[in-house]
Fold each of these.
Amino acid sequence: MATTSVSTGRPVARARKRSRLYAMKRLRRVALYALLTFGCLVTLLPFVWMILGSFKTSGEIIRIPPSFWPENPTLQNYRTILTDPKLPLARFYFNSLFVSVSVVTLVLFTSSLAGFIFAKYEFFGKNVAFSFILATLMIPFQVLMIPSYLILVRLGLIDSLWGLIVPGATSAFGIFMMKQFIQGLPNELLDAARIDGSSEWGIYWRVIVPQVGPALATLGILTFMGNWNSYLWPLVVITSHQKRTLPIVLTWFNSMHGTRYDLTMAASVLIVVPILIVYAIFQRWIVQGFTLSGLK
Amino acid sequence: MVSATSSGQSRRRRAFSSHQRGRSIFVVSALTPLMLYMLFWTLVPMTWALLLAFFEYSPTRVGGSLFGLGGDNPFVGLTHFRNMFGSTLEAQKFRMSVRNTLIFSFAVLPLNLAITIPLALAIEAIDARLKTVYRFVYFLPTVTASVGVALIWGYLYNPQQGLINMIIRTLGGSGQIWLTDPRASVLGVPLALWAIIITYLWWDMGYNLVIFIAAIQSIPKDFHEAAQVDGANIWHMFWNITLPLLRPTLLFVCVLTMISSFQVFDIIQIMTSGGPQDQTRVMVLDIYLSAFRYQQMGWAGAASLVLFGMIFIVTFVQTRLLRTQWEY
């Protein structure tokens, strides 16, 4: 303290320089926040435009030039959609939920079981089997799409929700992910259960499954979103209106109503928003899962 | 004593071997059906796809007993692949789709990196609590259904009712016919394809962003601190520390972005159906239309193998280009 007050000139210059440096740093921070916030607005704008559009009247939506804020906000579009007899939304929500929940259940079971076996057992052909599973990750879906369709034709599963579930019951990525996770669990857990007289199935069900909750949650949410949003495969498999899933219904509805954006935006809100809510709740796991996965 | 010990040992051994048998039974009984199931849904379609490409196959004809190939669905050898270079209408459309897919992917990759890397660095440079908020917002489009994305952007691009032309006109520019004008182009690339590229970037960027954020977080802080002590500025630190250390991630992201943009379908099928004048027709759309609208599954199968080959080449080349010899 004493020394700084005694010495003259230089510390003042240094302090001035430091304060200029701070100012520059502050400026850079402000610029950074401004840029990030601007980016956020650009990212959010399409969603905002969708939601605003869904509250506009049919007269306002076709007006040129268009308005940004709805002048007479109305719920009429939602009412029209929810009461349209040709659009039994409950039915389509059920279809999408049925497919997604079934696939998630199957994938969680098959992935954790196979992941457990590959992580904790030694057996003949293990490396070959696991390499095969990894190799299937490299085959693009579009290559398997046509033959898979032809298989479904022979199994009589075309135009059936089961046609969307059966081919997706196992997941190479899921097995890989669960194997990585279960490998980290100590072997003592398994041995302790064996000494207590537990069977191997018992170990899987009572020791492994309770331990891998976070991994199952991540895999489950990713699989759910993938199936809920899926478009190409349902487009190929489903032919009758009653069996459509939500994405297919939405495009059908759009083709029926052409440029009635008030209606199509309201329908989009009804289909996009549920998954955004799921995302808001499970954000951490979803982001983590996507980072891990390298899949979409 | 001795006998007791040995009997104890043998009992233990017996118990051990019964455990061992229990494990073997478990592995065989649990894994065999699973593996057979996976083989059925990958190896059978893969083989079938390889065969299809060499046959003139349509599901409307009965054909032979194995896979319905042969008979009315004759073997044609390499005809499909040779025809891809021919002058038939479907060959021209196919080549157009390959061209558009390549333009699309080679435009998307650098633009995506140019947005996501700076954004990830910026997000990493700010306070922890806001970091989550920004990451949440930037990731929103990525979890949105492709169908929703396509419909929202179709409305945004609408020449009369859309927001984009409204903003352009407010700023004093003239509105564009984004999705349906076959003559409009920017830098030699059709305007409609640009419109799709922009939509795709908006939809897809959050995914690479979170990967880069995770990678930047894993870089040890000491490196940057040491460089700062040595008087490096931000720019130096980015080029000489961050970027080289991001190299493995960069490789991963490049390959994945390229592969997924080769497979783009949903937004194009909904927004433009490949138009105007096939200017946004991409390979998966071409495969889908050939197989399921025109029932030309042999031809479509051959096209899907070309897509497979392209994906394979890109993966291979990029692995070569961005290989690193070290880890940290």
Amino acid sequence: MNKKKEEKQMSPEEIVKYFKDEFKTKIKYSEIKKRTTGLKKKEFVNIWMRIDKSIFKQYIKKLCDLTFPHLAVVSGNDLGETIELVYNFSIYYGKHLQEISLNVGVELPKSKPEIETVCDLIPGALITEREKQEMLGIKIKGIPDNRRLFLPDDFPKNVYPWRKDEQTKKEIEKLYKNLHEGANKK
Amino acid sequence: MSNATTKTTYQLPIGPIHPALKEPVMFKFEIDGEKIVDVDVELGHVHRAIEWTGMRRNPIQIIYLAERICGICSFVHPMAFCRAVENACDIEVPERADYLRVVHGELERICSHLLWAGVAAHEIGFDTVLFLTWEMRERALDLTEYLTGNRVTKAILTIGGVRRDIKKEHMPKINESLNYLKNGFEKLRHVFLDDKTVKMRSQNCGILTYDDALKLCAVGPTTRASGVKKDVRADQPYAAYSDLDVDYTTPDKLTGEVNGDVYDRIIVRLLEVKQSIELIEKAIDKMPAGDLVSEPKIPKLLNYIKKTAGEGVGRDEAPRGEVIHYVKFDGENEHPYTWKVRASTYANILPWIPMLKGEQIADIPIVAASTDPCMSCTNRVAVLNNQDNKKYLLNKEHLHQLSIQKTRRLMR
């Protein structure tokens, strides 16, 4: 990655069109939210998108072609049958008040929650991908470092704290009821 | 030849009691003689399950929980959370509140940067400078207490505004404190930036290149010191920052070049102290009259949030860099369906690795401290970690002594 190229900046509408032209119906949903602030009422743009998991990696590549994005974090929701990951990017930073926040959601079936890594394109994604693996129980295919991040080694396997199903609730309850020294030792 | 006897590198664990700040993080260094060959960072020692707890609280309760994510950034976390809720539920913020948010945010940045400057000086053995910076910080904290009622957990924010006003009778004390800080700043600038020994210890040390900073998604002064223009206050319009013309602080403003070393990170933070003092003055000067909060009745506000389904992200420039909160409401429950917090140190973990590789053991404290790490923010959710480190254990005092000895050697 060389110095950031001086790229032409697209408007939020153009950005949505840029992805829709490429991926057509695989972009399931898109919305542009604008809010103003301060006395001068300057506008700030949030773009929300939901995409199909089959085009996920191509989408990120296409985004990197546009401009190198800053991946702030990957958020995750347990929606019952599926697990949704929301990739919170910001683009066009470094230009005064021109930043656009781009939030891309992708749903994974709970029976097979797998997604490709983006570490090859954005190396800074490693920490947040490791966290999603242990907290939501998804599998990141091709992740360069497969270890846990925050959870200790003696934390039970197959318990993912951010899941909302009954099974997880029971397991977590068991954990904090036994939370005193030595209770979880093998 | 057997491997056991010919291995030239050895492992050196440092932590979880950490030499840079008084917070736990574990480094595992691969050492060849004095040189660091490889680094691995282990986290999770103070994971307190704050997000998990928050998902069982209502948004007003979460503000005060978010304040306790970090002992220093007790304004920026609730700020990012409030912005996320305001974005998710379309809640307006009155203009006066936008300006008041700037004043409190910048006051916190001054306290945080001065605290860091003192710690950094302590790491290389300049305890006199530690006392100088903390004396200044004390005055900034006094002002915080005067305006909010508390030194640290300020409880100043609420969803849709702020809770306390700045009135005319507050002005003499504010002006007096700001003048004191301005004078103190000149002294500090001279002590840090013109001192030969500080330069010797910090120049060409712990380098983070522009490409690495960009690729590893570093944030805050850490990335700006490498020349990446990234500052939420300047990047996107929020609070009253868009009216106040915030500029990116990069080291070339002072020296004309960007090296991305520890010295550059000192420059960026010091210049930002000055920038913050100016921003407070500008914000107070231009502050319009008006309401403090758009919906003062909390039950009404909570009821509205409960009925609104939506998601939002809120970003804020903390002293250490961008903080982002994500919230999702399902339209049925009062508590958020999801709350995700990403503190700035979380994004500055990976940049440590290129910074520390190739440096000497005695440089570990100052290089690690140069990103201003805040582990409590980063590890929000965990249980205890009972890792046994039986091999070499270099304790914090010993490492600190090594760092001081190196400074003394250079001064000879």
Amino acid sequence: MRLSTSPGLAAALCTSLGLAACGSPASDDARSARSSVLTIATAVDADALIPPLVTTTQGKQAVDMLFDVLAAPKAPLTTIGDGGFGPQLATRWQWAPDSLSIAFSIDPRARWHDGKPVRASDVRFSFALYTDPTVASMHASDFTGIDSVTVRDSLTAVVWWHQRHPEQFFQIAYNLTVMPEHLLGAVPRDSLLQSAFAEHPIGSGRYRFTQWNRQRDLMFEADTGNYRGAPGASRLVWVVAADPTAASLSVLAGQADVLEFLRGDAFTKARQSTQVHAVEYPSLDYAYLLFNHQRTVGGSRQLFADHALRVAITEAIDRAAVVTNALDSLGRVALGPFTRATDVVDTTMRQIAFDTAAAARTLDSLGWTRDPADGLRHRAGRTLAFKLLLPASSATRQRVGVLLQSQLKALGIGMEIDAVESQVFGARLAKGDFDAALNIWRTDPSPASIRQVWATQRADAVEANFGHYSNPAFDAAVDSAASTFDPGRRRALYRRAYQSIVDDAAAVWLFETRNFAAINARVSPVGMRADAWWAALPNWRVAEAGTP
Amino acid sequence: MGSFLVRRLLHTLAVMAVAVTLGFLLVHLAPGDAMTGDMTKAGRTSDASARLRARAGLDLPLSTQYLRFVRGAVRGDLGRSLTTEQPVARILAAALRNSLVLAAAGLSAAIALGLAIGSAQGWYPERRVFRWLGRALTTLYAIPEFVLAIALIGALAYAAGWFPVGGMTDPVTSLLGSPSERLVDRLRHLFLPALTLGLGWGAAVARQQRAALAGAVGADFVRTARAKGRSDLAALLRHALPATIAPVIAVVGLMIPAMVGGAFIIEVVFAWPGLAVEVVHAVAARDVPVVSGAILVIALLVALSSLLVDLLIHAADPRYRVVPTREA
């Protein structure tokens, strides 16, 4: 008997293989357009394309391509004075004799993507938008200390400060993205995201908006007539993958060109691949075991307010082993609440060394004695044990948590891992609802931003000092460093501040990540900065298909 | 029939009300909210966060928020997303369209695969190849869908490079390609998720079809058809298959509501921009209006498809139409 159903099966297979054989379908136009497209794989979509409302890295990448700032930071980024900046929207700038204002001359060639010229009034408008309480921008605090922006003439915007400080230029040039007043001026400030502009933004950058399918893809095309020159790639496309693993697969399979972070198995595969390069760039992320200094833990009031105990816990942890086991070559032992990419860092700073004998002696001297029955330390009927809050979504932090648990247990310190969903993690950190937490923080390029996380809390400040840490010596050193104009003294004062917080064992400084991007071999990246690897993306060269 | 319909409609409304209320409460009871929970919002002052919460109505009592949502939903206004400020109805309509495309493709694949293999098994019970195919399909049925999806991505997308790793379209092709290129591109993106769904559900169809057809192989009407000179294939397609398809239709009917919710994991694994992806993002962002709206839409779809199946069975099987009489 013949197989009467086999033709159907064969047809189905042929259809599917036929689809596959079509490969990347492309007409001449599409093929030509595709040849210099730069595709960025990401697991997270941009959240907004109006600069003051952007809160995610992906949104920042996008708006940095669409819009301009007054002056462009050079790599490596320095935040003091204006020496580390080159012209962007402003061709030149002039400081007032008292340094309380800077006049920026707007490039007369600059045009919005709708053809209208960029004017000084756009700078004034953008400042007003960022700082308007109705907008509730999370970037509003970046402009603290700036009094106003005025317009001297149509191409000269003057920024005024209440008082001079070393990072004045950085503050305005780095943080103020200039937006078009003629398109946004009439939009109610409390509903910017509902405007047509939010769906189809118009900027002055080297890429112009093409389309945005939320949670799917975002596409820009080159502004070939841009006053700063045409960019290298004809199009930029962000493609949203299901998760980081899927995003890395799409780059390894050649379906995307760039992935900003390689992790785990994908890193190994990229290193072995001839099609994809693993390109390292500096990192501003550091991870730490954060103590809640105000918490009553295991019945002991403000347990972690005890400096000797914090030092003992730090001594009990072999950070090098933690980094090797959890991150292999994708991390380094952290030196403090900063990374090696910070411009004022001193890598020779004194550290609290791994020393289990010293840790045991300290704990004994504090009255925490070990009970052979359970192996844990007790004092006055209380057990030395705490919970470590961490986000369940982070495999790295889960691994680190287990390693810490094991190392602390060897010293008689109980630690229970409290893994929660990332939103819950954020909410509990913000509320101070934790004993200790395994947190990762991305620092701002300005070393002064360390105050946001580690300075004594102020009611009017942006709050990220989740552990309620307070160290007046540290506060004073950072305040002095942030206000000095002498680079040598600035470095020395920051060193003093860093040493103070490290000696105080404010947290256990665990690791800083080493960032490796996966980049297709046909792409030649340049200028990957620690704070924004994408900053020079318009200058990346993309070889056309078939070109070596 | 009329009273049955009224009863089922009331039942449908009750199910939807319970689902929506529970969903609304659970999202609100979870720690954090759209303005404060995410670590990326840590740069906001407490004043700014409070202003945003007030603007979104998150500072109102829960009962007030719930009543607002219900009143809006009754009018067809599901509110705006707390994160993107887009109308929820617009977000969900786009996502639902994509979900239905995938569900339809998955169902078609399941029916095609299941009918082909089940019929072959039932018609040619002695053929080893079909027995093995049936076992293979049953084995695939036993594998969790997300595992199957990851295996297919690894084999056909990453290793072979035949299909995209995920997504629904290639953005450049969808913008610049000709209509035929765009169609092929869409089919390439649809193939793996639809195949994953089809392999899983196809096994259920195949088993039903094999059992039904096995009983018909030796039936008089089939023997008569063959005696009249019909080919083997014609006897199968024109006589045996129509007579045995009813149970399969019932199975497929029962699959539809399952498919509406069951494709969730597949959508997420393949980054298919359907309801699942929207819900996952909305839950993570505590975007209450989107989550509540999605629950409402899903509950409505499941309830309506269940109702449809009940009506079909009610219409098809006379035993359901017998009015029970009270015995004296």
Amino acid sequence: MTGPADVIFYVLAAVTVGSAILVATLPNIIYAAVALLFTFGGVAGLYVLLSADFLAATQVLVYVGGILVLIMFAVFLSNRISSVKLSNPVHFRLPAAALCLTLFGVLAYMAVSPAFVPKQEITYQPTTARIGELLMTRYLLPFEVASVLLLAALIGAALLSRPDRPDIPRPDMEEPK
Amino acid sequence: MTLDKLLVIGAALFCCGLYTILTRRNAVAVLMGVELVLNAANINFVAFSHYVSRMIGGQIFAVFVIVLAAAEAAVALAIFLRMFATTGTVEVDMADHLKG
């Protein structure tokens, strides 16, 4: 039985996995970043099919809107765009491919084994209110720890990426030739 | 759409991310591979939370993973910029200043 939900699922799965393979193989890093956009979008669609509406919105907002823009900035600020073909070299191609294919075989074999028993009734309900309640009650401590972590990351990133001030001496680092 | 198909998708994403991490020398591309791996883990969390568990703890965990990924990407970008300013490249092989 293939309903429209199954068709949508297969399309999303193909987009997600196909663009992930493109991310792994495309030589041009900017194309790889654009393929990563489609991977994130496909994963957000899978979240919708899994009745994780809040997570799907978060995925679009944080990954597509935030992390991907950060990665694009990292590409533009840290590469000589004129030599973009040389900016993304690869090595160890064959051993890495063999390792990853073997690992994929093992993981897929585990996934289709009957070790995981799904529950009988599968419900589709809005989850945002429940996630909010759980974050304020049961998972309050990890929530607060995450906020402290975000503050630390904010300060650390600002401190690391500040421009050099010539009047303030920096601890010397040996310059490579 | 069943649990095993979603787990296979998660495994495929994980292996693509691992391949990216292993083969690329540009640090930004390695960061992309890390994001792929985190997304694969998130798919597994949400799939198990939907099909196996009665709680939605898996979704909560996925939210925390997204928070960690955002913080990690910001700090990683700052480190890459500092590394580019210092060495003129972001290839991970070149970051060996601490080697004796």
